[in-house]
Amino acid sequence: MDVLMLSRLQFAAATMFHFLFVPLTLGLSVLIACMETAYVRTGNKTYQKMAKFWGKIFLVNFALGVVTGITLEFQFGTNWSRYSAFVGDIFGSLLAIEATAAFFLESTFIGVWHFGWNKLSAKAHAIVAWLIALASNLSAIWILLANGFMQDPTGYVIRNGRAELTDFLAVVTNPFGWYQFFHVIPGALCLGGFFVMGVAAWHLIRESHVEFFQKSFAVGAGVALVFSVFTVVEGHFHGNHMSQVQPAKLAAMESHWETQRNAPLYLLVVPGKEGNLVEALPIPGALSFLAYNDVNAEVVGLNDIPKEDRPPVLLTFLGFRVMVGIGTLLPVLALFGWVMRNKLTRYPLYLKILPWCIPLPYIAMQAGWVLAEVGRQPWIVYGLMRTSDAVSPVTTGTVAFSFILMCLLYTLLGAAGIWLMVRLAKKGPEDHTPIQVKAA
Amino acid sequence: MDTFVETGTVHYYLAVTWFVLWGVLWAVYFILDGFDLGVGTLHPFLARTEEEKRAMLNATGPFWDGNEVWLIAAGGVTFAAFPYAYAQMFSGLYTALMLLLFALIVRGVSFEFRSKVESASWRKTWDICHAVGSFLPALLLGVAFANIFRGLPLDETGFSQAGLLGLLNPYGLAGGVLFVVIFVMHGALWLCIRATGDLRDRAEKVALKTWPIQVVLTVLFLAYTAVETQLFSNYFLYPALFIILVLPVVGLVLMRTAMGAKKWWTAWGASSLYIGGTAMFGVAGIFPAIIPSNPNPGHSLTIMNSASSPLTLGIMLGVVLVFLPVIIGYQLWAYKTFATPMGEGDIHY
Q1: Domain B10-298 is found in CATH 1.20.1630
Q2: Quick one: which of A4, A324, B36, B121 has the fewest CB in 10 Å?
Q3: Are residues A148 and A284 in the same domain?
């Protein structure tokens, strides 16, 4: 394997591992802040107990997410130095703003939150919880705007052999980044909801801490329902916009080969290298409609895109289907849970299935990133710089060494972390409520 | 290398401002993460009982995450303000950097993982991870910065490889050892502030014993620097710059007198002054280079050939002017809330 392929794999592994933990941080932080607020408003100790229980799991998850994020920032320099030199003027500044405006806030207050139960009033502690939730989501804006620049570069001019910033407003209002933001954040909240529902279901079927987990379930199901629907609806508009700026990604995610008007959507497709191996059950005009809200719109096929500009079809195709498939299932599951939240014990099968559904939103989000990033290939910055021109001039051995070490380390840490989270989740809340020293 | 920045223009002054800020960010990072890396390095040697082990972790627990963000910020600012230098520095120091990151990852996780399972072997594993993950960054940061002072082997394209073995030259290693000693001292003083009982007394002994070592190593490293690097040329050109050297010297003296008077906050502050002064001494020495080239200074990455566009530098300056005071404000508040001698309630997990 060459440096390019190794670097791509290493970056993919680092990003996907990081993104195993980030969505739960984004989603659960909001849920916990809601629980703490409910405690402050009602004085009901169960809500405080809830914040503490979910908070313990949150901290293990947070630790893994935060430490693996550092590698990503630095990998742009180590593995993609030509990219960094070319777009640092824009991309680098977005990352730096993220650190200044959001990451500092998140990292400073996580320590305060962790060690502050007996040092802050309940109200102040709830405010800190909101600050953490706010900061993590604020972080996501800057990261997704940086990614938005890679997807659809705006606000620059090529000067001095690099992309130089000319219009900061265009960069921070880049529709692609915002469409992603309003897709990823609700997705993460939905994931947080399903995480809470799944763990709660595990306990409810065992009749342990029933009141506690019924309350938790209701919070989780409400959030999961609202945001899973939001994610799906927004996903449609995101797809519309993407189709216009990245026709090659659209063609690859549908394995659509022939340019045509009134393009059909095939329910059964097996993509091949030079065309589809199987193509059956067409819905006339559906692809044109989904992409452009117009059944007669022309959809460009892969055959009309030069070979060297085509994304890997199979991965993009699968990424899209896995994401959409799971995305369709989640609102149904959440709706049932929300409606039946007070008589859950009557549906043991549902409760038994739910813990196994925890991985689903995770898989959907990972698949979504495969679609977004693999579908953008062969470009690192769409239409502007190829991934192959972005890689650092380093030796294969250098990358291979760090890649192998990283895989080993991440596997061990990931396994230990997930094991710990499962253990904490199964253990349930502690029965004694530690005393709050200061009054609210 | 092409030159983007003309001397005397607005662009030039923006680049100089960012160079100073870049140096300050690294200095603050060393001051803040320095003490928690130092405490982590001391962990296997100072803590005897399980309670003391937890106390040492909790002495830095509320702060380390916020401290480490200064590294992210220093990295991010290098990327944003001097992208060519960022690209060269990080790809050139590839392996050393990855090892540094892996060490920081293992250390960060150990804070959270260690006490979650009631098992001696589990705790021991994470204690080792914590100590190695604290010692290695201290050493590697020293190696990396000493090599930057000395100059990296850049070529005309700017990009070149300094393999890990190339970095482990005697001067680089000397830098590594100096950093470890500085951070251990800084961490011991922090423990004198936060720990109690036997642990605190042991930390005090370490601090008192480390001080003369730090003084001797500082003098030796400065002499070695004069022989091995071009760092002093700026100082002979503008002797007024030697004022910066006053900071670490005052820091060292004040540190000792404060320790004698058992004023631990003052001693820690003096140690911070020493670290900040030493870092800025190095930064001022390499100006206008960010990554000096050795043996061919013509290939150096400087503020002239590495800086971002004036628009980016200007916008970033605005962002920093707004957010930095806010960050300093809430970090100070966090320190004020938690940086007190730990009582019973703080040793829990």
Answers
A1: yes
A2: B121
A3: no
